[in-house]
Amino acid sequence: MPDRTFSSAAILGTGSFGTALARLLASKLERVEMIGRDAAVAESINATRHNPRYLAGVELPENITASISLTNAAAHPLVLFCVPTAATRETAKHLAEAGLPESAVLLSCAKGIERNTGERMSEILHEQLPQQPLAVLSGPNHAEEIASGLATCAVIGTKDEDLARRLQELFTAPHFRSYTSDDVAGIEYGGAIKNVYAIAAGIAAGLGLGDNAIAALVTRALAEMARLGTCLGGRIETFAGLSGVGDLIATCFSKHSRNNRVGLALGQGKTLEEATSSLGMVAEGVPNTLSIHETAQRAGVRTPIIDAVHAILYRDMPAARALHELLNRDPRPEND
Fold it and tell me: Domain limits at 96?
C-alpha cells in the first residue's frame, strides 16, 4: 500500500546502501527511481532486477527503476542522497540546476565531513538547495542486512517535527524501526567519526592484539567521539544512541564494514592502496580521516585515536608503531 505522505522517491546513488534503501521503500511507495552515473549498473537493474556489482543476490521489485538522468529527480517528492560524501556538493549543485520543486524533501544518508570546509552533509545540501525541507538518516545500517530483511534500527534527524513524523512513518517496516531526533549535528558527527575508529579496530585485529585491546580501543573511541562531537555542537546523549555507540559497534566489529576491512588489511601489512583497491567500493573512513583530523585540530580537541589512524594512513607510520604509541601514552583518569 503506497505511503500516504510520499508517492515516490529518487535515490541518488546506485551503490549498496542506495540499493538496500530502494528495496526497503519499494513496499511503501508507488515507484522508486535509482539515479547513478554508471549506465551499465542502471541497465542491469532494469533488465535483471539485480545490482550484481554492489549488492549481488538481492532481487529488486518491479517498481524500482534506474537511470543516469539527475533531472529525473525533480519528478519525485522525496530525494535520498546516497552518493559518496566527496560527491555530495557536486551532486547537490547539479540537482539545484534540475529545477527541484521547493516542496521536495531531501534526506541525507551519507556519513562524512567535507575536507577543508569541515561541513556536514546536511549543511552542504542546505547551502546548495536552501528552500528544501531537509533531514538525515543514520545508525547501525549495513546495506547487506537491510536488503536481506534482517532487523535494523535507524534515527532520523530533523528540526521539523512534521517532517520527522512523515519520514518515520515511511521508514517503519516489520524489520526496520526508526526513531527521531532534532540533534542533526550530533547524528551526523557520530556517523562520520565512527568510520575512523572502524579502521583502528580493524588495524588492531590485523595486528592480533586480541579482544581485550579491541574492546578497550572501541570504548575509548566512544569517549573521544563524544568529546569531539559535543565540542562541535552535538548533544552528549546522541552519542549514546543509534548514530553514536550503535553505529560504532556495528562498524567496528561487522564483517560487512568496509572501513574495518581496510584496517584489517593495514594491520596485516598491506599498503593503503592494496587495502582499498580490493574493496571495489568507497570506504568513507579513508578520506574522512583527513577531514575529521583537520576538524579536530581546528577545534583544539584531544583525539589520540584519530591522530594515530591519520599517521598510519597519511604519514606512513607503521601500524604496529602507531598502536604501540597509542597504548603507551601517559596515564590519565578515565573520565578525562
Answer: 8-182
